[in-house]
């Protein structure tokens, strides 16, 4: 698993355009689970285009630090059974 911000960015750069499951901490013991496609990566953030049928938002962005601190967990796989899971550990 990636341990630094640059490792996380490099891993995400290699998965551009792939479908993913995003689990995010929504605060107050809420976990938000969304599905979409990794659209873009920038020096400090990455953007996920969400499935329109399930979400009110078109796009969300998170920082690489969110993955490192396990506020966000990303799973890349068509069936989402954990082939590549990104979290801070």
Q: Using only CA atoms, what is the Rg?
A: 12 Å
| Separation, N- and C-terminal Cα atoms | 6 Å
What is the total domain count?
Answer: 1
CATH class: Mainly Beta
Largest sheet: 6 strands, antiparallel
Sheet-strand content, in percent, reads: 35-45%
- Which shape, going by the Cα principal axes? globular
Count of individual helical segments: 2
What does this entry look like structurally?
- With 89 residues, this protein is of the alpha+beta class.
- It has a single domain, classed as Roll (SH3 type barrels), CATH 2.30.30.
- The protein is 16% helix and 45% strand.
- Strands 4-3-2-1-5-6 form a six-stranded antiparallel beta sheet.
- A hairpin with a 2-residue loop joins strand 1 and strand 2.
- It is globular, with a radius of gyration of 12 Å.
- The model has no long low-confidence stretch (mean pLDDT 86).
- InterPro entries: Protein_Veg (IPR009366).
- It comes from Bacillus solimangrovi.
- This is ABC transporter permease.
